Amino acid sequence: MISRGFFGRQRPPEVEKRLPPGQYLEKGFPVLSAGPTPRTPLERWSFALQGLVGSPLSWTWDEFLKLPSQTFTVDISCVTKWTKLDTKWLGVSVDTLLQSAQVDPGARYVMALCDGGYTTNVPLAELVNGAAFVAYQFDDKPLEAEHGGPARLVVPHLYFWKSAKWVRGLRFMEHDEPGFWESNGYNMHGDPWKEERYGGD
Amino acid sequence: MIQPPVLEWQIGVVTRITTENARTKTFTVALPKWIAHEPGQHYDVRLTAPDGYKTERSYSVASEPERRGEVDLTVERIVDGEVSPYLHDVLVIGDQLEVRGPIGGYFVWDVALGGPLLLVGGGSGVVPLMAMLRHRAAQESAIPTRLLYSCHGPDDLIYHDEFAALARAGGTLEIVITFTRQAPEGWSGYRRRIDAAMLNEVKEPLGEGIRSYVCGPTLLVEAVANALVASGMSPDRIRTERFGPTGS
Q1: What is the CATH number of the domain that holds B133?
Q2: Cβ distance of B246 and A28 shorter than 8 Å
């Protein structure tokens, strides 16, 4: 249906081709979360791999910072319709985390586990080969708590609710399970280019 | 897991446009495939240009689910926005509007969830809270409820007369307004940003076991949610919805 009298904003073609369907360009960095911002002191922070791994692994904050890190510049899209281009992060690739873990060949899905009880599910194949990382800096500064600091998962090719804030670990699973938003009406997969926003999309 | 139903786009018709304040209007949209929403949920609106370009935004439902067949979407006009200026400046009664919903399963409340209920809204963040209050009134619920509503000045208030009527009729509902920039002449109430002391005063009469819903700009939501946690409320009793610096 064409909306009578709607022509849309001026959209430079180089921007438009980077905006998934239905999204608009955002220059700020909106904050969205379902509850209060959790704050875990860094001395109590740890990051754990659990579930279908040979032996559970855990890093303290200091250990985590010593892992090889990389800068990532990626576009991010939130299911609430904004897309932000060229966001710059520093973090540890999921591939790096998995190097020291013996992930069971039967593991096909991952649940991200977070402070505050937030969870989100992602297929394991979509977290590896440089596709995802655990970030602790945004724009050359420590990641603010409101934006998921001290560390958040970043999975830029999926809607941003998959990029779990305040992430504390990954649980490896044989079968897919819904996380927090996935149990509240949102899509199990969440590909912005396929507009997989809600459960039935 | 059972595959959830597809949330289909549908073409509604605008049947009423209500001016709430200089920057805010309510659009009543009649829906051919109306589904009862939970108070707090939103709808997506999709606009399509003649060249095929589409853009979408989410707007909270202000009406109660007891009003069947239509929804009220209250929309603040964002100066450099794309969709809200269209809705405000172009859309007229009788126009079609493509929408889908209702959406969102967490920032929702109905009388079955119970209370006591502490609602905190800033600016147009009061919209989903209004759906909860209208639902509560339609159900003739006596659940002790307080709304703390932060507003720049009297010209920025929305739903003011209806709030007054709801609070009079309810008995167990109280509406507390704080003006952060300019208060009306003779105003004896709060005139500052919401802080921990104000929250404690407002929630104290509600006693224990409060459920809280907080909606507004990020700074307000962060401050309120942090203060509620610091006051001893369990984080899982505090549900938030934020709108940040978005260009909608």
Answers
A1: 3.40.50.80
A2: yes
Neighbours of B230 (CB within 10 A): 12
| Interchain proximity A185–B103, CB inside 8 Å | yes
A4 within a domain of the structure (yes/no): no
Pick from B82, B218, B239: which is nearest to A24 by CB? Answer: B82
In a domain, A8, yes or no: no
Please report residues of A whose CB lies closer than 8 A to that of B104.
Answer: 184-185
Name chain A contacts of B5, Cβ cutoff 8 Å.
199-200
Number of domains in chain A: 1
Number of residues that this document lists for chain A: 201
Q: What are the tens digits of pLDDT across the range B77-122?
A: 998 899 999 999 999 999 999 999 999 889 999 999 999 999 999 9
| B55 and B172 share one domain | no
Distance, in Å, from the CA atom of A58 to the CA atom of A56, rounded to the nearest integer, reads 7
Q: How far apart are CA A72 and CA B105, in angstroms?
A: 33
pTM, 2 dp: 0.92
What is the CA B203 to chain-centroid distance, rounded? 20
ipTM summary value = 0.87
| Alpha-carbon gap, residue A120 to A170, rounded angstroms | 10
Q: Nearest-CA distance from A174 to chain B in Å?
A: 14
Contact status, residue B246 vs residue A25, Cβ threshold 8 Å: no
Domain assignment present for residue B2? The answer is no
Q: Do B56 and A81 touch (CB under 8 A)?
A: yes
Q: Which residue of A has its CA nearest to B86?
A: A6
Interchain proximity A22–B55, CB inside 8 Å: yes
Q: A146 vs B239: CB contact, 8 Å cut-off?
A: no
pLDDT exceeds cutoff 70 at B1: no
Dihedral sign from CA coordinates of B197, B199, B205, B208: negative
